[in-house]
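Data card: per-record layout.
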Amino acid sequence: MVLGSVLTLITGVALWLHDTGPTRNLIEVRVENRTGQDVREVRIEHGHGQVLHRPLGKGNTVALAYPAVGESSYSLIAVLEDGRELRGGAGYIERGARTREVLEPERVVSSDP
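The structure for this 113-residue chain is written out next.
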């Protein structure tokens, strides 16, 4: 009986650590470049700063992550090779979430992965 209680306690702690660990606080944004041109810069702006990636080649994908405690939101700005900017992003997102942003020639399409 004591062994069962100890194993239950260990399992509970392991599940709690898994759910509250550092990777669960990250928000991952996967950005796919389908614009037909290179992207000079991809920037994710959020409540506590920004994440920057340079450059993103035609047809390439990058995963950008940032820490969040509780609820968050972000804006995505992509500067194309020809100087135009594409804008998108999530108005609301929770910690541990993953999203996908597809850069198309004239717009950004947001979705779950």
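Known properties of this structure: Strands lie at 26-33, 39-46, 49-53, 61-67, 71-72, 74-80, 85-88, 93-94, 98-103, 108-111. The domain at 26-111 is CATH 2.60.40.2890 (Immunoglobulin-like).

See the next section for split statistics.
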